[in-house]
Specification:
Elements: H1 7-23, H2 30-61, H3 72-93, H4 100-116, H5 132-165, H6 179-213, H7 224-245, H8 248-275, H9 291-320
Helix pairs in contact: 1-2, 1-4, 2-3, 3-4, 3-5, 5-6, 5-8, 6-7, 6-8, 7-8
Length: 321
């Protein structure tokens, strides 16, 4: 039954919820809020079933020794699940605020990257029997989600600042939380992202030592993924130091701008790990964007060999005659 759940099921539910959020800018309806929460909850249920089935498939592929987040696709889809769950929580606790306008596009973007670009197969490195592999993958996942949440809070903070400057606080349309609430969420997101990134770096170093002792694949410390991760940790630490250095009246806006740069940093780091062939990511099976063309291309050498064999056979027959 779980195999029938596809990405279209939960991605479509989130897309409908986003459309309902957009309609809140121009139309009022008491039923729309329930529909929006219903579609989001249905998407989360289908999303959970899909992740569970994918984890079972990886375990079967690795003969029962697979771990959660063993594939890049599973990692991206789990990040999307966490953001969708956070959006549902915020939509219930703050029903007047259109959090979906900021969270759901990120959810759909992560689903799209995970489905079309990420590798669905488990990593080529043998799974580590200890807990360090799970700690490494989970901490980097939580750090990514924390930075995304901080980015959303930063964007909303800057939007609220501009609205207050123009004294444009309408009684309908786009509602945003208070500056104090957004500043608090932004700071906590950056702190959580920095802490989880530190755990991910330390656990990755432990894993590298374990692999070196077992004479398995050793990832050099100059690997692009490792370098960009360490640089991002330094940038997040710098953002927090900059926030403490500014006066409280100006801290929120400065940190919000720095958070946007952190988001760009995060996108670049994810692109490096996703698109570049590094020792950290291992050998990945590239999924063709056009499977039909790829299959036809793979058949061309066989057809050429068969044609050459037939021509040789015909030539031999003429010589015999």
């Amino acid at each position: 039954m779980l195999s029938r759940v596809t990405v279209v099921c939960f991605a479509g539910s989130y897309a409908v919820a986003l459309a309902l959020e957009l309609s809140r800018l121009v139309l009022r309806s008491s039923l729309r809020g329930l529909l929006m929460l219903g579609f989001t909850a249905a998407g989360l249920v289908a999303h959970t079933a899909f992740l569970f089935y994918q984890a079972e498939r990886i375990n079967a592929q690795l003969h029962g020794v697979g771990l959660p987040l063993s594939s890049t696709q599973h990692w991206y889809l789990t990040a999307a699940w966490l953001l969708a769950a956070m959006y549902l929580f915020l939509a219930v606790s703050h029903p007047r605020v259109q959090f979906g306008l900021f969270f759901l596009p990120l959810v759909l973007a992560l689903i799209g990257v995970g489905h079309y670009l990420a590798d669905p197969n488990p990593a080529s490195t043998p799974p580590d029997p200890s807990i360090w592999g799970l700690i490494h993958g989970s901490s980097l996942l939580l750090a990514t989600v924390a930075v995304l949440v901080a980015m959303v809070a930063g964007v909303m903070y800057l939007g609220q600042v501009q609205r207050l400057k123009r004294k444009a606080v309408p009684h309908h349309g786009l509602y945003l939380p208070s500056l104090e609430w957004l500043q608090r969420v932004n700071g906590r997101g950056l702190n959580a992202g920095m802490a989880m990134l530190a755990v991910g770096i330390v656990s990755g170093m432990v894993l590298n030592v374990i692999y070196a002792e077992r004479h398995q694949r050793f990832v050099p410390w100059t690997d692009p993924v490792i370098v960009i991760t360490v640089l991002m940790f330094g940038w997040l630490a710098g953002c927090r130091l900059a926030g403490w250095a500014y006066r409280p009246a100006r801290e929120g806006r400065k940190v919000a701008y720095l958070t946007l740069v952190s988001f760009v940093f995060l996108v670049f780091a994810l692109a490096v790990g996703l698109l570049l062939e590094t020792r950290h990511s291992g050998q990945r099976s590239v999924r063709p964007m056009f499977p039909g063309r790829a299959a036809a291309a793979s058949r061309q050498p066989t057809m050429r060999v068969l044609g050459a064999a037939l021509r040789a056979e015909g030539e031999a027959g003429r010589i015999g005659l």
